[in-house]
Amino acid sequence: EDQVTQSPEALRLQEGESSSLNCSYTVSGLRGLFWYRQDPGKGPEFLFTLYSAGEEKEKERLKATLTKKESFLHITAPKPEDSATYLCAVQDSGGYQKVTFGTGTKLQVIP
Amino acid sequence: AAGVIQSPRHLIKEKRETATLKCYPIPRHDTVYWYQQGPGQDPQFLISFYEKMQSDKGSIPDRFSAQQFSDYHSELNMSSLELGDSALYFCASSRGLLLNTGELFFGEGSRLTVL
């Protein structure tokens, strides 16, 4: 069964203090790994899709990377508006649409 | 731009009652997914539909059923409600059976409280 583990569970950063979030995954075959952002009481908002080891994607202060066993979401010089829960999810190549989510990392950026 | 519409946004039911949640996908999206998210937990995949047919099934209880209609909207029917069913229920939509971009568009969610 697909498994996604994220660490740390919570992260508190000062504004401008860069850091990385980790996502370890286990799937029989990876179709895609996804990063989402979720604000309290809202639906997850899509950030990135990564398909193969070595791939990188960037968006503003966020950069996602992928290896065969894990993905990292690097946050460079974060701002308070980056505070949210960041969810990692995977889609197994054996299934059709099931996307399995991790429990997320709750990021708080302090001014 | 049009987003995924879910209704109702909030619902309060008693134990053993029945509830129905509705989801209207983004126009031209033919695939709908249902997720359940408990407090502080990750979204758990329940079920998905493509072109009005069930395409994948996750941890959906037997007390729950769902379908996708000809206009592509979907309904999640929940019967014999239990306290543990209290959660945020998200609907997401995408275009096509395979997630070419991996982008699921999520609605704002329906918060179900079972008393």
Molecular structure report:
The complex is a heterodimer of chains A (111) and B (115). Chain A is mainly β and 111 residues long. Chain A has no helices and 11 strands. Chain A has strands at residues 3-7, 10-14, 19-26, 30-38, 45-50, 56-59, 62-66, 70-75, 84-92, 99-101, 105-110. In chain A, the strands form 2 sheets. In chain A, strands 2, 4, 5, 9, 10 and 11 form a 6-stranded mixed beta sheet that branches. A 5-stranded antiparallel beta sheet of chain A has the order 1-3-8-7-6, with no helix packed on it. The radius of gyration of chain A is 13 Å and the shape is globular. The mean pLDDT of chain A is 93. By secondary structure, chain B is an all-beta fold. Helices cover 0% and strands 50% of the residues of chain B. Chain B has no helices and 11 strands. In chain B, the strands form 2 sheets. In chain B, strands 2, 4, 5, 6, 9, 10 and 11 form a 7-stranded mixed beta sheet that branches. Chain B has a 4-stranded antiparallel beta sheet with strand order 1-3-8-7, with no helix packed on it. The interface between A and B is medium-sized, with 25 and 31 residues.
Summarize the structure.
Chain A is mainly β. In chain A, 0% of the residues lie in helices and 59% in strands. In chain A, the strands form two sheets. In chain A, strands 2, 4, 5, 9, 10 and 11 form a six-stranded mixed β-sheet that branches. In chain A, strands 1-3-8-7-6 form a five-stranded antiparallel β-sheet, with no helix packed on it.
Strand fraction of chain A equals over 45%
| Total beta-strand segments of chain B | 11
Average pLDDT over all residues of chain A: 93
Helix run count of chain A: 0
**Proportion of beta-strand residues of chain B:** over 45%
Radius of gyration of chain A: 13 Å
Rg calculated over all Cα atoms of chain B: 13 Å
> Portion of residues in helices of chain A?
under 10%
Total number of strands of chain A: 11
Which spans of chain B have pLDDT < 50 for at least 5 consecutive residues? Answer: none
